[in-house]
Amino acid sequence: MQQDLFVKICGITNLEDAMHAVRCKADAVGFVFYERSERYVAPERAAEIVAQLPDFVSKVGVFVNATQRSVEEIARKVNLSAVQLYGKEGPDDLVGYEASVIKAFNIRPNFDVEVMRNYLVDAFLLDAHSEARYGGSGKTFDWNIAVRAKEYGRIILAGGLTPENIEDAVRFVQPYGVDVSSGVEGKPGKKDPERVRNFIARAKDIPLSYNMIGEDFG
Fold this sequence. Notes:
- The chain is of the alpha/beta class.
- It has one domain (6-204): Alpha-Beta Barrel (TIM Barrel).
- It contains 6 helices and 10 strands, in the order βαβαβαβββαβαβββα.
- The strands form 2 sheets. An 8-stranded parallel beta barrel has the order 1-2-3-4-5-6-7-8, surrounded by 5 helices.
């Protein structure tokens, strides 16, 4: 059975933006629990937002070099569907999580997709490398790397995606999903409603040319 493209709107900091993403048919919303991020949201606030969202929407928490214990504490408090982990975690560090695990990689030009071989996770998120930040950089990377990475699991494409380039990205990579944050913002942490609407509509309008196995994170 062919599965529709999974679309995640990340960097949610308020209920208004979350509900608008849901109305526009986003499959998931993301909350950043990295305190140095411009899009950081306190777990207590994220829990309040999540409590008002429908069950069918996946709620993903973004963490950077966090301990498994702290990740799981926040995941339970917020009622997350999945955790997206940026950092130095090796394959053995990602065993035993209660929530679905998305392993994020910041992609440099010389990134070797072979490193993904030993990770047993629900999906990989590929983002552009930035010296200054984890995610939300607004930069793209060589999408050929994402195409090669599909050999090792479900790929969620991120990094510099916008309503203007999302159709090209989906056609080229044919990923399991896409993730956007800065590309649909008016300012960091506040989404632009029209850009969110256009991004999701354009992303989901591109037919996927192969069958994908597995369900969304719910």
